């Protein structure tokens, strides 16, 4: 196995007198002993994320980022496209808009929205703010590095680093914004103001979307709002560094989202998001000005499987960095949390509930402990 000897151990950071030796892709095929847990821990302790690996000049993907070939297959289906729904005429063409939302949510579980009212400058500034944070000095980012469950502001690489079968080529700044926002000083100065402004627009748009979805389910417009679906938001601000061997890993593994609904702002030029439809991956290319909306697990549960929480993933990319901001609607952070189950108005004509009533903290705990392992968390809550 001479490849082993051609591959120098990767020296993470001599500046800190702290050497991280990780096995890389070339060594993976050799029969050297491999202590995965130790390498993961050493990587985590650098607190510099995947960006730190790139900054240190790594040219091969460390072994714990490598996914089985079959989960990375990049064959895509070009026959389908995620629908784009124009929200400009939402009042004058209400019925048509609701119908398009219903159809997209029942089939793809995804749609994009145009003319959604979030100003372009706010979107641009948000991506710039996240980029500034992620590209700041490691010393600055380290202040926010944690895996603490109750923190409102946390930065790390792979929330499920210690539990998922393979790590993702991605770093994340995670912000719990509503219903109890962090103090301004708790946020990094690089993105402080824009995070609050962007979040304000997310909540406004979220309320409009929950009205459309309530109507799509045949309920009164404020039904989902009254069930507090738009009350809690968290922002997952992702940074996908360029990857030297994108065929070996993923930016984000296949998963469905845990909350009620997600509003995703994608990078302006670098793609990689894919949605599973009829067992095929469909690309969702960057679409300037649009936001991507997807139904998440709890709304599938509440709609008793009428609306679909569909699996999606992000490919790793040689170009980059790719940035994205996912706004998750999920109220489990609220102390007044209540259980959620299939909505009783939808259980007419002898339809039986498919799911149990679940408390959101219970759901989130299960989702997080499982990690992104490619399986749906919803199955666990079936009757
Ligand atoms: C997520 C997600 C997609 C992206 O955060 O749940 O699916 O493009 N993100 O980053
Ligand atoms: Ni997602």
From TrEMBL:
InterPro entries with a match to the protein in the record: DIOX_N, IPNS-like_FE2OG_OXY, IPNS-like_sf, Oxoglu/Fe-dep_dioxygenase_dom
Stretches assigned to the Fe2OG dioxygenase domain: 225-331
GO molecular function, one term: dioxygenase activity
Keywords for this protein: Iron, Metal-binding, Oxidoreductase
UniProt superkingdom: Eukaryota
One Pfam family matching this protein: 2OG-FeII_Oxy
Record-linked PROSITE patterns: FE2OG_OXY (PS51471)
Family (UniProt): Belongs to the iron/ascorbate-dependent oxidoreductase family.
Record's protein name: Fe2OG dioxygenase domain-containing protein
Source organism of this protein record: Dioscorea zingiberensis
């Amino acid at each position: 196995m001479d490849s082993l000897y051609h591959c120098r151990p990767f020296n993470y950071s001599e500046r800190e007198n702290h050497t991280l030796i990780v096995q890389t892709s070339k060594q993976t095929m050799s029969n050297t002993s491999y202590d995965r847990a130790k390498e993961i821990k050493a990587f985590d302790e650098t607190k510099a994320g995947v960006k730190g690996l790139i900054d240190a000049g790594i040219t091969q993907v460390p072994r714990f980022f490598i996914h089985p070939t079959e989960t990375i297959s990049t064959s895509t289906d070009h026959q389908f496209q995620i629908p784009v729904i124009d929200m400009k005429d939402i009042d004058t063409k209400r019925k048509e808009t609701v119908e398009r939302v219903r159809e997209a949510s029942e089939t793809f579980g995804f749609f994009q929205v145009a003319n959604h009212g979030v100003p372009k400058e706010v979107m641009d500034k948000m991506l710039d703010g996240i980029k500034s944070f992620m590209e700041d000095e490691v010393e600055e980012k380290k202040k926010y590095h944690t895996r603490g469950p109750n923190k409102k502001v946390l930065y790390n690489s792979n929330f499920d680093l210690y539990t998922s079968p393979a790590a993702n080529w991605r770093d994340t700044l995670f912000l719990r914004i509503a219903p109890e926002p962090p103090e301004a000083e708790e946020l990094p100065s690089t993105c402080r103001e824009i995070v609050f402004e962007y979040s304000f627009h997310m909540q406004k748009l979220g309320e409009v979307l929950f009205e459309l979805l309530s109507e799509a389910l045949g309920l009164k417009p404020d039904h989902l709002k009254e069930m507090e679906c738009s009350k809690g938001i968290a922002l997952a601000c992702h940074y996908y560094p360029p990857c030297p061997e994108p065929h070996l890993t993923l930016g984000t593994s296949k998963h469905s989202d845990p909350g009620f609904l997600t509003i995703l702002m994608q990078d302006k030029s670098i793609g990689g998001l894919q949605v599973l439809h009829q067992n095929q991956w469909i690309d969702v290319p960057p679409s300037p000005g649009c936001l991507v909306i997807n139904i998440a697990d709890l709304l599938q549960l509440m709609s008793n499987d009428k609306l679909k929480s569909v699996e999606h993933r992000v490919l790793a990319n040689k170009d980059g960095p790719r940035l994205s901001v996912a706004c998750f609607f999920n109220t489990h952070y609220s102390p007044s949390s209540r259980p959620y189950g299939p909505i009783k108005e939808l259980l007419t004509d002898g339809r039986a509930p498919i799911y149990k009533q679940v408390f959101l903290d219970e759901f989130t705990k299960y989702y997080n402990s499982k990690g992104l392992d490619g399986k749906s968390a919803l199955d666990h809550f079936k009757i």
